[in-house]
Amino acid sequence: MKDINIEKAYEAAKERYSAIGVDTDKALDSLRKISLSLHCWQADDVTGFETLGEGALTGGIQVTGNYPGRARNIEELRADILKAASLIPGKHRLSLHEIYGDFQGKAVDRNEVAPEHFRSWMEWGVEHGMKLDFNSTSFSHPKSGDLTLANPDDGIRNFWIEHTKRCRLISEEMGKYQNDPCIMNLWVHDGSKEVPASRLKYRQILKDSLDEIFSVKYDHMKDGIEAKLFGIGLENYTVGSYDFYLGYGAKNGKMVTLDTGHFHLTESIADKVSALLLFTPEINLHVSRPVRWDSDHVVILNDDIADLAREIIRCKALDKVHIGLDYFDATINRIGAYVIGSRATQKAFLLALLEPGDRLAGYEAEGRYFERLAVQEELKNMPWGAVWDMFCLKNDVPVGESYIRDILKYEADVTSKR
Ligand code: RNT
Ligand code: ZN
Question: Cβ distance 16 to 112 under 8 Å?
Fold first, then answer.
């Protein structure tokens, strides 16, 4: 599309929105300030760079597909991330798992990892203007089993406590280095395939482990604790359920991580935002797309994500919500998966920012529910696509579907040769 046509369409859209009291220029500025945290693990199917471990992905999560071109080492992964980021408008962060350390070919076990293994990442992040977030990694290791931080075996449990403590230290160092808090997410797969004789026992152990892990206070990192409904092979019981982490987070002032794939399929994640914000300091998101189960499909613009973004904007909570992505699809071009999912998430926030919030709230306060419903319905066909195109144009990334070409070229030149 020609720039002049994008500009013309934007001017018309701007006028239309202005008539309902929405300033599109302001929406574009606000959207520009929203940074997503891209999950490094879409680039290589959650493999990482360790030279030890079982090799297979464990912990009840699964990647499907075998599309050629996955990143095989740190250089390829970094190049892929930069390629993806160049096609996503705005400035974004990168979320690393512990298994993506720069181990230089050495076997560094999980209880030995240290900030030095992420030094080159910190430098890379500053060089490319990408702030880093972090994740401890309890899966895909000989000691992963079904239980890590909730394991009654002291040897195994202490191994994972040590790992998680070290991950917090790494996050603290990252936060200091980049002069912006690093968000560290803690997710453990602990659970069981069948109903355990005691559900309480393992939750008590997990609570004690967390207390020990969080007894160290840091200033440059923030903890998120991620709940889950179930994992594959762990269908009957998840130690770190939503109730567990909600209680823990509310009591101890920790952020709960809401992974949009970790709930019953008819449960609204959007509805949780306002409730959590009253009792936990901030919220960490893992934006994903469950299809029938926690299947980690590439995020697309659907009602779930639009509702979630709208709730965050209505709560005026952008400064309290960290927006990480979390999906892994190996059936399509992986760079394309980043770009589609990131841009879809941004579109959801744009839609939310283009809502005449005060007007809707005013109708509601006056009991004018017909007007409230009518405006909400009409918003669906407002010319927001023209505003999105303008956002891409202003931020020097391909408009509309024209990014497909860039991705196919990168595939031809780079990933298909791997
Ligand atoms: C698993 C959780 C977790 C992982 C990543 C790889 O169900 O969603 O966040 O996807 O840590
Ligand atoms: Zn997640």
Answer: no
